[in-house]
TrEMBL record:
One of its GO terms (molecular function) is metal ion binding. Its EC number is 3.4.13.18. Pfam families: M20_dimer (PF07687), Peptidase_M20 (PF01546). It catalyses: Hydrolysis of dipeptides, preferentially hydrophobic dipeptides including prolyl amino acids. Its cofactor is Co(2+); Zn(2+). It comes from the Bacteria. InterPro entries: Peptidase_M20, Peptidase_M20_dimer, Peptidase_M20C. This is Cytosol non-specific dipeptidase. Residues 208-294 form the Peptidase M20 dimerisation domain. GO terms for cellular component: cytosol. Keywords: Cobalt, Hydrolase, Metal-binding, Metalloprotease, Protease, Zinc. One of its GO terms (biological process) is proteolysis.
Length: 486
């Protein structure tokens, strides 16, 4: 990793981010980063412990003169989304993130950067380590598994935290103060199918959809970005209708909270349709590229001949599943009637795996309205059940209801306007923040969420603004100086 990252200002923030990014920390594999954080807290002589689910809590007393202020919980999550470009050789389980500076941006070479939520965690670490920053009593809460299930937040028991105010540092626009967020639920469709022997006189093809932007399935869902699973299914649908295409296997998308960037399918068509199939597909590919020319200028769709697979899907099951995926909603379902430009409800068809007689389709449905969340989840369930799938709704977590009369919101608005000469945008977001979940066991805690500017989260294009990190640093320090009295 380049030394230039550690030389960025504020050095306290970027050095802690560099330390953190040297530790592999995929969701559900946080053992190393948990030990790293515990060692960090213990090295400072601060009270440091794990709760039952393995969240890490570090407590630091108030600095002199700040003892009469309310205790503040500084909160971030330890895990990060692991995504890489298909041509990037990288082992997330063993390697630290390879970062570099690109103008005003810090990026990673071919992988996600981990600024979500690493910069928030690094900020908290820098405050805990500092002997110069003025602050009230602090409880640092580092949760686990935020990205793949909110496990840490959902299992944090009431009574562990003593703080009255929570500052969540996990949003991605530095001019925004978040006071609400969407909840979510996983919709997973599965079924088995009979494999048939590949017919004679067939031709095998590999279809590849790649080069899409991808991104955060909450924050970027309204941008009209391409979903590799939906694009692939469109190609399969047309070829099945016109040429009797049969599917051998599909591997599309990756993580539930990332808009799918790539999909690969192995298929066959009858040899008699070989030339006609390729001609027809090229027309459809041109149409799709034209539709996405503005939002997805780097979209690549390739169809190349390959070795003939030994078996293919049962045609009846194949037809049903292709039609189900076509019918399943992807993208924005409903905009909020209460908050301008806020997505209320959406779905991301995140994962499609068809191989060896098994089908698995994974979706993440989000909404700031619980009834709307389940309405869309049930619509998806119905679509997949019509093709014989078993559908499980799991991992439901609540949204975070805005409190426009929040005391800490008043503090943040005042500090922001003083520092920047303009008002902050007070918003609710369509991402899943941990505040709503934490609020179930800490209903009286006054919560707010904010952070530095990060773009392309959950994709290898993730990047963090250096200038914004300086703004973030200055903002946090003055907030801590102005925490209300007990």
């Amino acid at each position: 990793m380049s030394q230039e990252i550690r030389n960025l200002e504020p050095k306290a923030l970027w050095n802690k981010f560099a330390d953190l990014n040297a530790v592999p920390r995929p969701s559900k594999k946080e053992d190393r980063v948990i030990e790293f954080m515990k060692n960090f807290g213990n090295s400072l002589g601060l009270e440091t412990f794990e709760d039952e689910i393995r969240n890490v809590i570090i407590r630091k007393p108030a600095t002199a003169g700040m003892e009469n202020r309310k205790t503040v919980v500084l909160q971030g999550h330890l895990d990060m989304v692991h995504q890489k470009n298909s041509d990037t050789v990288f082992d997330f389980d063993t390697q630290g993130i390879d970062m570099y500076v690109d103008g005003d941006w810090v990026r990673a070479r071919g992988t996600t950067l981990g600024a979500d939520n690493g910069l928030g965690v690094a900020m908290i670490m820098a405050i805990l380590e500092s002997t110069a920053i003025q602050h009230p009593a602090i409880e640092a809460l580092f949760t686990i598994d935020e990205e793949t299930g909110m496990t840490g937040a959902m299992n944090l028991k009431g009574g562990i935290l003593k703080g009255e105010i929570l500052l969540n540092m996990d949003t991605e626009e530095d001019d925004e103060i978040d006071i609400g967020c969407a909840g979510g639920i996983d919709v997973t469709a599965t079924r088995e199918y009979h494999e048939e022997e590949t017919p004679e006189h067939s031709v095998g093809y590999t279809i590849t959809v790649k080069g899409l932007n991808g991104g955060h399935s909450g924050m970027d869902i309204h941008k009209g970005l391409g979903n590799a699973n939906k694009i692939m299914n469109r190609l399969l649908f047309d070829a099945f209708e016109n040429f009797g295409l049969q599917v051998a296997e599909i591997n599309g998308g990756s993580l539930r909270n990332a808009i799918p960037r790539e999909s690969v399918a192995k298929v066959i068509v009858a040899g008699m349709y070989d030339e006609a199939y390729i001609f027809d597909m090229q027309e459809i590919i041109n149409d799709i590229k034209t539709e996405f020319k503005t939002t997805e200028p780097n979209l690549i769709i390739e169809i190349v001949k390959c070795d003939l697979p030994k078996s293919v899907m049962d045609l009846g099951v194949q037809e049903g599943i292709i039609r189900s995926i076509y019918a399943a909603h992807n993208g924005v379902y409903r905009m909020s009637a209460e908050m301008k430009d806020l997505v209320e409800t959406s779905n991301n068809i995140a994962r499609v795996i068809i191989k060896d007689g098994e089908i698995k389709i994974g979706c993440l449905t989000r909404s700031s309205v619980e009834t709307s969340k389940f309405d869309l989840a049930n619509a998806l369930r119905s679509s997949f059940e019509l093709s014989g799938c078993y559908v499980e709704l799991s991992g439901s977590y609540p949204g975070w209801t805005p409190n426009v009369n929040s005391e800490i919101l008043t503090v943040l608005e005042s500090v922001y306007e003083k520092q920047n000469g303009t008002k902050a945008n007070v918003v609710a977001c369509h991402a899943g923040l941990e505040c709503g979940i934490l609020g179930t066991n800490y209903p009286e805690m006054d919560m707010i969420s904010f952070g530095p500017t990060i773009q392309g989260a959950h994709s290898p294009d993730e990047r963090a603004s250096i200038k914004s990190s300086q703004k973030f640093w200055k903002f946090v320090l003055e907030i801590l100086e102005n925490i209300p009295l007990k």
